[in-house]
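subagent[fold] <- orchestrator: predict structure for attached chain, return tokens only, no commentary.
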Amino acid sequence: QVQLVESGGGLVQAGGSLRLSCAPSGRTLSTYGMGWFRQAPGKEREFVAGIRWGGNSTNYADSVKGRFTISRGNAPNTVFLEMNSLRPEDTAVYYCAAQRHSPRNYDYWGRGTQVTVSS
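subagent[fold] -> orchestrator:
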């Protein structure tokens, strides 16, 4: 079974940077686009950033605009999240997700990678 595998999480000081990666293991997925979500302790999962393959359009949560950048890799269904000027409130488990059956829904998920920002 194909899985989305995230990597690049870790511990960083406030103001620092991290780069998350996501790629499918196994065979290639057919998707409309991919994105990143995050879930902090005691909070609901929230959208962070997304990218559509057609036209490479991107969108971001207001809380990360100007600090985070989503981009696609050269390999199919590979996506990155460049995170700069990190804040303690960015601490969360970050999940990669794919739009497999509809461009309106994210319906395929990775297991997540922990990002911790210390003050």
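orchestrator: received. Logging for downstream: The first strand starts at residue 3 and ends at 7. The mean pLDDT is 94.
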